[in-house]
Amino acid sequence: IIFSMGKHGGAKTKTTVCLSDGVIFLAGAFMSLILVWSYFSIFSPSSNYSLTGLRGDGGPIKCSGLDMQFDPPDSGFYDDPDLSYSIEKSVTGWDEKRKRWLELHPSFKPGSENRIVMVTGSQSTPCKNPIGDHLLLRCFKNKVDYCRIHGHDIFYSNSLLHPKMNSYWAKLPVVKAAMLAHPEAEWIWWVDSDAIFTDMEFTPPLHRYRYHNLVVHGWANIIYDKQSWTALNAGVFLIRNCQWSMELIDTWKSMGPVSPDYAKWGPIQRSIFKDKLFPESDDQTALIYLLYKHKEVYYPKIYLEGEYYLQGYWIGVVGGLANVTERYLEMERDDATLRRRHAEKVSERYGAFREERFLRGEFGGRGSRRRAFVTHFTGCQPCSGDHNPIYDGDTCWKEMIRALNFADNQVMRTYGYVHSDLSKTSPLQPVPFDYPDEPW
Amino acid sequence: IIFSMGKHGGAKTKTTVCLSDGVIFLAGAFMSLILVWSYFSIFSPSSNYSLTGLRGDGGPIKCSGLDMQFDPPDSGFYDDPDLSYSIEKSVTGWDEKRKRWLELHPSFKPGSENRIVMVTGSQSTPCKNPIGDHLLLRCFKNKVDYCRIHGHDIFYSNSLLHPKMNSYWAKLPVVKAAMLAHPEAEWIWWVDSDAIFTDMEFTPPLHRYRYHNLVVHGWANIIYDKQSWTALNAGVFLIRNCQWSMELIDTWKSMGPVSPDYAKWGPIQRSIFKDKLFPESDDQTALIYLLYKHKEVYYPKIYLEGEYYLQGYWIGVVGGLANVTERYLEMERDDATLRRRHAEKVSERYGAFREERFLRGEFGGRGSRRRAFVTHFTGCQPCSGDHNPIYDGDTCWKEMIRALNFADNQVMRTYGYVHSDLSKTSPLQPVPFDYPDEPW
């Protein structure tokens, strides 16, 4: 009788039994023993939630999610003196390095193919605009709420990582550092400080991006036919944590202040994209330039998302907030499932239900039944207050607060409260049971 | 005859039975079928990292942490119309209700005994103090950093949940709502907006609190011998998500503005705690009052933590920030493990190492080698700016920024950067490989 049995999971269980008539009893007993043993090893109190896999050190993976206390001694990219976080140095072979890290940290593998770390930030000093920091605080709370509901980590940067890479260029060094600090994440999601999540349920359709490495809101025809610097918006993007992205950032940043050729890029960009606002090279036009000039290289890997508001221009959104509130309450009156109270941690289940029941195939954007996913207060410049002269500053601040409360209503429902009026932040109103079915 | 079951969630099971007799063949087949059944029920193909346990609906638990899309139809406390989030209504039988929720959501069970949700917040309107909201934003970032490193959820409240429960009373309705919205959490950790985590590695010794339901920084002798309203600080506390805490909050709030007897409680508190600042009843004195008047009821369940700075008065901390930086760099020069770069997600492993190697048995507090865990800028009132006249406002803001950068240095190390000077937020300085072993 040959008998070998390893640990469950990732492990093999092989049983070979060759018997003659004489030992049928033994065979039965033996099989039963295997059954008993396997059940015991699986349901024994000690290994209550042990994962079916082996960890680097041979012990079972704790199933309480991620093993944050385990970092094996095996040498990895962090131990390589030549690997630098700096925007000025290139990273090579990142895909293999990340892959190896995940192999050495198997508890991070489940879900790693879709894991997102959100990155945002703002300036290091107080805002010139008196209400600026208050709005930044609330915009950050809004992002933290979205990330908590969907289980994403979020990192806020309020310092320059490179003295020359400031204003709209500051995000590139931060995104690169985040990629290196978070090998467990497949996507880094940059979101400008003045972009607000106005649909707390919606989740980006990552499967749609499986062959792409950068996802940004934009339109190909406006890049290639109209040559406008607003053909896409670089204030919100998903970038895959891979070697391709490392190289994109290298090329991208070579048009920025850190590059010796910085000065020449402004005029080049303007010569092609005539409506470009600033004389100096900016990150958004730089990205459009790459797509325009090297379409064959970049277009296949950059997904221009236009089917929903990965970021939506606030002017087109805020006017509809009241109507869309009514539309969503209507869905909730239609179906008791959407009225069911629940733990915040399982909110995704109800978002998925609404998607399935009411929003299937519904595109986002103007006139859609969908709420805008992200409302971007482009041009409002809440911190400096130097908003685009075409609108009144007070309108910016007033509408930002309405958008923030609109989003907060979706969050506070699970805490038992709502804002009775989108312009009114406090106090909140208790939500009656089975709201909105029962009359308020 | 070969029964091959193929791949079942990373586990391979192969059973080969070579038998010479028909009956034995049937026996083997039967046994193998049981094996097939048993393994199949455990490693279903659908669940890659399937957990060795059964979910409410009979399916396997996904091991990619928490199953945030699963909420079974089984009726629970959320479906009870009489359960209210309001501070004015009592919750009964909460322990059973929470236990039942966890049973219906088994993916949340692993780690539930120590799961923490941090709750903080500030006023709903812009601060009077021009630098106020900037400081609040940075204090929130500091808490989000701590929670990201340790895997806690964090919720920021900037609206009153009850119009009468304002200022220092506002936290009670929020804490209660968070308890109900987060049945997956064993602890709700309230942290005032002006409290800053200055040791990003330290984790509260929860095992020490296993027989207690409320943990707050304070000293028994000062309650019972000195009757001072500063015998504990209610700005930072861990409260267990259990029925006892629900009842404590009911009793606690009955001394607050929501109570018809509110007016009488101020004088009562002052008659016992002579040094109390405000004439009106406040949450901190109210808690001390309960401990003082009903020692037998509350003292056994309230842990007064004085062995480390669960919250430390900033005046006693900020002067030592430079020295403590040096002491910690010294530890890092002493041991290469502390200099090893790593993913942020496994930072806890290095914190645990430092604890074991250098800080074992080291109490926190004045003169300790330990960094203060939490530095609380009590009396600075960063938002209103109405700081305690005994100190200069500018000192408050300057020291808050130094404390924030001191903490940020511990965070940004894993992103490759540090603040070269605690007073300087930006730009950051790249960290050389093997820092601080190599000369800067």
Q: How would you describe this structure in keywords?
A:
alpha/beta, 2 domains, six-stranded mixed beta sheet, three-stranded mixed beta sheet, Spore Coat Polysaccharide Biosynthesis Protein SpsA, Chain A, 12 helices, homodimer, 13% strand
Structure at a glance:
Chains A, B: It is a single-pass type II membrane protein. The structure is a homodimer of 440-residue chains. The first copy, chain A, has helices spanning 24-43, 94-104, 132-150, 171-181, 220-226, 243-253, 262-272, 283-293, 295-298, 321-334, 347-359, 393-412; strands at 2-5, 12-18, 116-121, 153-157, 187-191, 195-197, 214-218, 232-240, 302-305, 312-313, 374-376, 417-418, 429-430.
Protein architecture, described:
The structure is a homodimer of 440-residue chains. Chain A has two domains: 95-305, Spore Coat Polysaccharide Biosynthesis Protein SpsA, Chain A (Alpha-Beta Complex); 312-420, no CATH class. The model of chain A is unreliable at 1-23 and 25-64 (pLDDT under 50). In chain A, helix 3 (132-150) runs parallel beside helix 12. In chain A, helix 3 links the parallel strand 3 and strand 4. Chain A has twelve helices and 13 strands. The N and C termini of chain A lie far apart (74 Å). With 440 residues, the first copy, chain A, is of the alpha/beta class. At the A-B interface, strand 2, helix 1, helix 3, strand 4 and helix 4 of A face strand 2, helix 1, helix 3, strand 4 and helix 4 of B.
